[in-house]
Amino acid sequence: MADHLFGITDAGRVRENNEDVFIAEEILNGQFLIAGVIDGVGGYEGGEVAAAVTKEVVLGELAEIGTDVITQLSIAFNLANEEVLAKKLLDVKLADMACVATVAVIDRQNNQFHYIHVGDTRLYLFRDNSLVKISHDQSFVGFLEDSGRLTEEAAMQHPKRNQINQAIGLSSHEELTDAYFETGSSPFLPNDIILICSDGLTDLVPQATITAVLSSDMLLETKCQQLVKAANLAGGKDNITVVLAKNDKVPVLHDISRPVTEPVIPVIASTPDRLPDFSAVPVTFAAASPVENMSHKVKNSSRLIMLLSSLCLLFLGTSLWLFFRPAAPPAVMIPAVIIAKTVLNPAEKTIQDNLLKLKGDTLVLSETSFKGPVKLSEALKIDKDTLYIKTKGKVVLQPDSAYKGPALLLSPNCKHIVIDHLVIENFDTGIISYKNAADLKNVKFNHCKYPLQVLFEFPDHSLINGRMSKRPYLADSLERKL
Which fold has domain 5-246? Predict the structure, then answer.
């Protein structure tokens, strides 16, 4: 019987419903394990809905595992966040729902795991009878505990223990920074155990008790049951969910090599078919007589005289050739090709200069600064990580008669570019963006064949996984309050 993955959830002794769900799945014939705990935010109606939606999205995105697991996990959590937000808009009763979650993908073949985390569910690594907390609680009390300002016992009793700062379904897309979801990777060695759990366990059961259970020889299923039992015996104030994953490979033991104390000299027997080896026979040189030495000196002097004579003749021949060679033809002057530089009109130059010289992350464009539409003779290039372009009044971008390119060109370095209340008209392509960096707020595209073009770059010969967000942009007739 395989003993490398098991999960369990329990409502506890106080709550009537269970807002927790867990993931304990094997995929690709057991090459990868998916372990996760998702905790619907307690006290809010619909927490179990948020948890169920998140589990469905995560499993859908991880049906196939690619080479960049961290990116897949990030995509899954971002999509889950959008799905939860969408359901909150459709049903007033679900307006306050959210969930916290920790999910790990275990690569059994390469003895490694990758994880993503948000909120106060927890990820632990148990190795050599030591329990190490990998994830960080995204709450004020969790920060105090992780930084050593509160002891574990004091944190467990703190009245604001369950007040979280981050969760799936709490923040809109533009508020999700790169650090919103915690991610990481770690070796997963033979006999290592991963523990993922909800706060229903860690709020009531100290690490010493958890370590004692994980150190036992029980099966993972029994260990999970014992941990849930310990939380219920301590009061069972919240839903309790535990998932354990183990690297059940047998450790490889290597023999310690010992140095050879005495050199071993191989003995080769002489055979008639083999020529004698003279490499080891010492060679003796006889001293030369005075007559022989004189003969060698005479020969060396003759060779030196012949070498010097040859060099003199070579030098004389080269000098004569350089003196009598025909004159070189006059150089032909090649006229320089002058490439005319695009001359920007004052309005577009003002915008482009502001983009280049901007120190902060906000550029305000006011209609009072421009007399009519801004005619572009080249694309307005944006090369910042984060930028908020906000317009006051009606600012319109139009191409001049000779320009056929886009109005805005976002470089691959852009990660989050917000464009607010801008009007782009009469362009074949309005905006070119890389990797969904463009965040549009009440932007109008008038008579644009392709309002927005999103480009992606992938390495050659690679297998691509992923998809565009289900609802990245919406067309509305009325202004939205975003």
Answer: Phosphatase 2c; domain 1 (3.60.40)
Least Cα distance to 82 among 158, 174, 3 occurs for 174
Report in angstroms the alpha-carbon separations of 431 from 244, 299, 407, 409, 448.
Answer: 47, 86, 6, 6, 10
> Would the CA dihedral through 15, 40, 210, 218 be positive or negative?
positive
pTM for this predicted structure: 0.56
Structure confidence at residue 1 (pLDDT): 44
CB count in 10 Å sphere of residue 145:
21
Distance CA 137, CA 139 (A): 6
Most confident of 252-261, 329-338, 387-396: 387-396
Question: Which of 227-241, 363-377, 461-475 is least confident?
Answer: 461-475
289 has pLDDT over 70: no
Distance CA 37, CA 45 (A): 19
pLDDT at residue 326, rounded to an integer? 60
First to last CA, the chain: 54
Q: What is the sign of the dihedral through the CA atoms of 276, 278, 280 and 286?
A: positive
Domain with CATH 3.60.40.10 in the chain: 5-246
Report the distance separating Cα 389 and Cα 383, nearest Å. 13
